[in-house]
From TrEMBL:
Bilayer-spanning residue ranges: none
Keyword Ligase among UniProt keywords: yes
Protein name (Swiss-Prot/TrEMBL): Acetyl/propionyl/methylcrotonyl-CoA carboxylase subunit alpha
Keyword Acetylation: no
Length: 642
């Protein structure tokens, strides 16, 4: 095994690789750009080397600087993660020329799969079914249009150098072909410096099912399939393993085809063979076709880890360091079901625009795996992929794993940036998805309902109203609210108006239109309408966030402003009708904020009335034994000196 490796990446995947390296006792070197000097992956690694400016071209894509950093720190091998240099065969050659090990396949294997047309030709030869279509060299528009006619519409135009869904156009009718071709070629030229395209039959009711493979350079095994059909614009959103409805016959056929593909190119390390599947008539062993091979670790590898119990990064390090494949095919077992949801900083209502921000609050739930590159206080910068985390759940059945995913998404708390969390939650609750009826068109068909901003749970809105009324302020960790506040508040928040009636410290009734929520602080958590709500009020600088089922964020008004205005010179009011049991102060006495002033007995409970601020008692307007109405002034403090 290596003693020390360098990770040529950032974010969650760099952190993920460091975790497994540490487990194996391998020392780690991180690299970072100016934008990432304080990033999580840098903090986690044993050493870190600065490699350049924030633009990927000035740092994470600079193979020379990365190799120099590896040599300078004495690292023996480089793990490329995904994206960046992970599928760049020139980088692999440069790494090897420098006497280092590339943790991944050979340059020739990457080249064989690098262009989709050549890869398809190779796979045909290896007896792997490929999507019917034209993947020849003739790029004459008329020739390509003729090929599309022969294939039969609808067709898909794909950039041969494509990736990330770029340079791809679906064409439904012959009259649209020429324009679509031109725009696909233009996009391909800009994105990949290569305008060449291929034409494919557009598969009906398409499902994206991919097979995880692992090779040692001679032979390969597979670790079952992942279904990545939940896509938006050809980008994966939620992935799962195994594929819903998968049959043993189809799994065997796909696994064998994937292993054949890997062995045909002498594949070494972790790779993924992506297939497109015609799901119009269930899953059938003769209805899957090779699309492409990704010669790296895939973003969604954790679902495979969850169902096999195998650490794929550990396998990568073992095989790259010269060990044999850690397990034979028949020793690899599938257990249960797993999901992964990709949590992004993005503005869903604005059309899924990437967003940025400093994550003033970030919390992942227990009971789920969260792979992340950020900590609370970290910033999602405009320079890189805006992924915040991947949330992964596992369970003995698909239904259980999915309900765990829903719970995990509900329990995920992010403040400081807009996110796609509620979109992911809506997807996780989608009925067709719950039945396993997935295809790559699902999200687009139901986009409106999936992106409609659902009102957060009543408990969340009610606590937001308390926060906005200043009632959740003060006191340690939202311990309750002080009684300087007036008894009735009307607050207007984004989307609703609420009436808040204070009943006692830590106890209020909130009316939101025709709904009513009685909120009570019970040993550190909020109960709403007699049940523990799970909702939490989280103050962050300048803002307040409420998390529960759904989240709500708003600007904080300065509680001091409100306090002086509401306290009207330090009046303590009776929060509810009751009996004054005790009075602890007399005129002229100085008190500190929080000191006990009196006790009121109401609703069979004693309520301590505390001073809202430091001051001197001016008047005591009640006495023990008095029956008082709600809102009656009980104790007045002297005006504060300016
Ligand atoms: P996958 O199938 O694993 O999602 P794709 O083939 O769609 O991968 O995309 C290529 C990979 O490059 C993805 O893992 C994606 O997250 C990653 N990637 C794309 N853009 C960036 C970026 N700016 N920074 C880091 N990684 C990126
Ligand atoms: P990329 O390199 O951008 O990942 P792929 O060839 O893997 O490109 O295709 C991306 C996505 O486009 C697939 O996951 C699938 O949803 C869709 N797709 C690709 N080929 C077809 C096809 N022939 N028919 C239907 N959908 C397809
Ligand atoms: Mg792909």
């Amino acid at each position: 095994m290596f003693k020390k490796i360098l990770i040529a990446n950032r974010g969650e995947i760099a952190a993920r690789v460091i975790d497994s390296a540490r487990k194996l006792g391998v020392a780690t070197v991180a690299v970072y750009s100016d934008a990432d000097a304080t990033a999580r992956h840098v903090a986690m690694a044993d050493e870190a080397v600065h490699i350049g400016g924030p633009r990927p071209a000035d740092s994470y894509l600079r193979g020379d600087a990365i190799i120099a950093a590896a040599i300078a720190t004495g690292a023996e091998a480089i793990h490329p993660g995904y994206g960046f240099l992970s599928e760049n065969p020139d980088f692999v050659e440069a790494v090897e020329k420098a006497g280092l090990t590339f943790i991944g396949p050979s340059a020739s294997a990457i080249r064989a799969m690098g262009l989709k047309d050549a890869a398809k030709a190779l796979m045909e030869q290896a007896g792997v079914p490929v999507v019917p279509g034209y993947h020849g060299a003739n790029q004459d528009p008329e020739h390509l249009a003729g090929a599309a006619d022969t294939i039969g519409y609808p067709v898909l135009i794909k950039a041969v150098a494509g990736g990330g869904g770029k340079g791809m156009r679906l064409v439904e009718r012959p009259q649209d072909f020429a324009a679509a071709l031109e725009s696909a070629q233009g996009e391909a030229r800009t994105a990949f410096g290569n305008p060449a395209v291929l034409i494919e039959k557009y598969v009906q009711k398409p499902r994206h099912i991919e097979v995880q493979v692992f090779g040692d350079g001679a032979s390969a095994v597979h670790l079952f399939e992942r279904d990545c059909s939940l896509q938006r614009r050809h980008q994966k959103v939620i992935e799962e393993a195994p594929a819903p409805g998968m049959t043993e016959a189809m799994r065997a056929a796909m696994g064998q085809a994937a292993v054949r593909a890997a062995e045909a190119i002498g594949y070494k390390g972790a790779g993924t063979v992506e297939f497109i599947v015609d799901g119009s008539d269930g899953l059938r062993a003769d209805r899957f076709w090779f699309m492409e091979m990704n010669t790296r670790l895939q973003v969604e590898h954790p679902v495979t880890e969850a169902i096999t119990g195998i650490d794929l990064v550990e396998w990568q390090l073992r095989v790259a360091s010269g060990e044999p494949l850690p397990a034979a095919q028949d020793a690899i077992r599938l257990s249960g079901h797993a999901f992964e949801a990709r949590l992004y900083a993005e503005d869903v209502p604005a059309g899924f625009l990437p967003a940025t921000g400093t994550l003033s609050h970030l919390r992942f739930p227990e009971g789920a795996r969260a792979d992340t590159g950020v900590r609370p206080g970290d910033t999602i910068s405009p320079w890189y992929d805006p992924m915040i985390a991947k949330i992964i759940t596992h369970g003995p059945t698909r239904a259980i794993a999915l309900s765990r995913l829903r719970a995990a998404l509900e329990g995920t708390e992010v403040a400081g940036s807009v996110t796609n969390l509620s979109f992911l939650g809506a997807l996780a609750r989608h009925e067709g998805f719950a039945r396993g009826e997935v295809d790559t068109g699902l999200i687009a068909r139901d986009l409106d309902s999936l992106t409609r901003a659902a009102a957060p749970d009543l408990s969340v809105r009610a606590l937001a109203a308390l926060g906005a009324a200043g009632l959740a302020e003060g006191g340690g960790a939202m311990a309750g609210f002080a009684l300087w506040a007036p008894l009735l508040h009307t607050v207007t928040l984004d989307g609703f108006t609420a009436q808040v009636q204070v009943l006692a410290p830590g106890h209020a009734r909130v009316r939101i239109e025709d709904e009513e929520a009685e909120c009570r602080r019970v040993s550190g958590s909020w109960w709403v309408n007699g049940r523990p709500s799970g909702a939490r009020i989280v103050p962050t600088p300048g803002r307040i966030s409420v998390f529960g089922p759904g989240a709500f964020h708003f600007e904080r008004t300065d509680p001091l402003d409100r306090r002086s205005e509401a306290a009207g010179g330090g009046l303590t009011l009776s929060p509810m009708p009751g009996l004054v049991k005790a009075v602890f102060v007399s005129p002229g006495q100085t008190v500190k904020a929080g000191d006990r002033l009196a006790v009121l007995e109401a609703m069979k409970m004693e309520h301590t009335l505390a001073a809202a601020r430091d001051g001197t008692v001016a008047e005591v307007l009640t006495s023990p034994g008095s029956q008082v109405e709600a809102g009656v002034a009980l104790i007045r403090l002297e005006e504060e000196q300016a």
